[in-house]
Design a protein that fits this description.
By secondary structure, the chain is of the alpha+beta class. About 40% of the residues lie in helices and about 20% in strands. The protein has one domain: Adenine-n6-DNA-methyltransferase TaqI, Chain A, domain 2, CATH 3.90.220.20. The chain contains five helices and nine strands; from the N terminus they run H-E-E-E-E-E-E-E-E-H-H-H-E-H. A hairpin with a 7-residue loop joins strand 3 and strand 4. The longest helix is centred in the C-terminal third of the chain and has 39 residues. The protein is globular and about 65 Å long.
């Protein structure tokens, strides 16, 4: 599905000719998260802790970042991983978030653009022991920004594809549960 999404995004991006090229720092403020120690995390906390990486590091009852925020992993093996966070969360010390987007930047368009270029963002990493992406390098990442109405169209198409993908994944999960239940009944 990722290949399909990349293909669709590429076709959409290349089907328009009016673009402004902006540096990421001119699209949004890149904020580095705040470290939260494992001792400060609780098992059933209301909010997830995103400390770089691909998945949550734990949970807490506090948040420092609002929902509908783009995050980019700052450090570790997955540095450069781009995620759209639909819930409030705690942005940890190895996580960048994009805050205060420029008024004419569509959040979903920017997310899909960055996700499309995730490998290029990952190539910004430096260091070998604990690789990381320097904020100064990320700020200089170039973004093609079409007019707002085109951003909205691209964002809507990509969001619809993502919603369909999520529905299919959920249905497959339900089918797996049914399959497991049927298999268990066969051997009782």
């Amino acid at each position: 599905m990722e290949t399909y999404k990349r293909g669709v995004f590429s076709v959409l991006l290349n089907s328009f000719s009016k673009y402004e090229t902006l540096l990421l720092e001119n699209c949004a403020f890149i904020k580095k998260g705040e470290q939260l120690n494992k001792t400060d995390m609780i098992k059933n906390g209301k909010y997830y802790v995103l400390n770089g990486g691909v998945t949550a590091s734990g949970r807490t009852d506090n948040f420092n970042t609002n929902e509908n925020t783009i995050s980019i992993s700052e450090g570790g093996n997955s540095c450069g991983f781009v995620l759209f966070n639909t819930e409030k969360f705690w942005s940890g010390g190895h996580c960048y978030t994009l805050q205060n987007l420029k008024q004419d930047i569509n959040n979903y368009y920017l997310f899909h653009y960055l996700k499309f270029h995730e490998k290029e963002i990952m190539s910004l990493r430096v260091g070998s022991g604990l690789p990381n992406i320097q904020k100064s390098e990320l700020e200089k990442f170039e973004i093609l920004v079409p007019p707002a109405n085109i951003q909205n169209k691209i964002a809507n198409i990509m969001s619809n594809i993502t919603a369909y993908e999520d529905a299919v994944k959920k249905e497959l999960l339900n089918l797996d549960k049914i399959k497991l239940a049927l298999l268990q009944k066969m051997f009782i």
